[in-house]
Amino acid sequence: MSSFDIIQIFHFTLTSTYSFSNSSNRPPVCLLNDEARNNNKLALDIFDQFAENLAKVMVYWIHRFEPDCLVIGGNIAKAADLFLYKTTARIHESGYTNIKIEIARLGENAPIIGAAMAINQINTKNMVTEKRKTTQLLIPEKTTDVTDGKYNI
Question: What is the CA 123 to chain-centroid distance, rounded?
Answer without folding.
Answer: 21
